[in-house]
Amino acid sequence: MLLILFLLSAVLWIAVMIFERRTIMSGFLLLLTAALLGAYLISLAQSAPEWFSAHILLHLLLDAELIFLGILLVAYPVAMIPLFFIGGIVLLKQEGIKFRNTLALGLAAAFIAFDIIYPFFFEVTASGPAAYIYWYMTLISLLFVIELASFVLSGLLNMLHFKKDQGLAYVVVLGAGLSGDKPTPLLRSRIDKGIEVYRNNPGARLIFSGGQGSDEPVPESRAMANYAMEAGVAAEDIIEENRSRNTEENLRLSSALMDAGAKGKTAVVTSSYHLMRALLITRRLKLRCIGYGAVTKLYFSVNAILREYAGYIRDTRRKWIFKLVLLSVIYLIFVYNH
Q1: Is 99 in the same domain as 224?
Q2: 321: how many CB neighbours lie within 10 A of its CB?
Q3: Pairing of strands 238-241, 178-179
Q4: pLDDT tens across 65-86, in order?
């Protein structure tokens, strides 16, 4: 049975990757496939130990699975909490004290309060209100962490491209704010990645997308175009979209500037932490495209990923409400029967 479930999950993951990878199912199915493979190998080792021992490749595969599982088990308390905590402090120091910069630090504090402080003061191993609350919150946290892992992994999978020349007609680079009339380091990394993709696809044109904020002397698209031309990009290969104010407008207004016959040969370039949500928006807008992510500093990426994930939850809030209600009902039924 486990073998059938593993094969089914693997086939579904391959189908998603081939036909529509712009979904968090690409990451979730990969996690599920890995988990089912590990469970199958363990069951095989228990049911036929002599046969299993004679096959070294299966041994190595199981060892790899167990190491991966061990990393996951220790990553949450040993790695994720310190990463969020340290990353949050560094971000506040580098970028200033703003609410949007406190997500990583706040999540680290919440994990510490829930996983360490709460069990210290309340009995969570026996039946009772404190235990029921603890295990309910654990269940909700598990849903949050699994979906977050799927969201991040899906973004990484969408950055995989096995050939440089994808036959692209357009490369859309999303704006990210200016410093005076010049691109910020974050925006420069996006433009540099966009230029790299453009040069790997002869005949492609660059669309720089970004309007003019109230504190910006020029539209972001103009500053991006100037930077690209200084880097050697021909002016005739540049299109400026200078009206957008957010990611959805970036993509919708840029699409309107493309030739109808070439819309399916498009790439979106943005920061790696922002790519998955941008691609989900393209899917919602029914825009066919692939994505490329620009490298971002780790201390910034940790908080930014959480911000993007929060945006994803907001965009899919109806599905999240359904999941939470369903999970709550199942838990209440379980508690009532026990």
Answers
A1: no
A2: 10
A3: unpaired
A4: 777 666 665 555 555 666 666 6
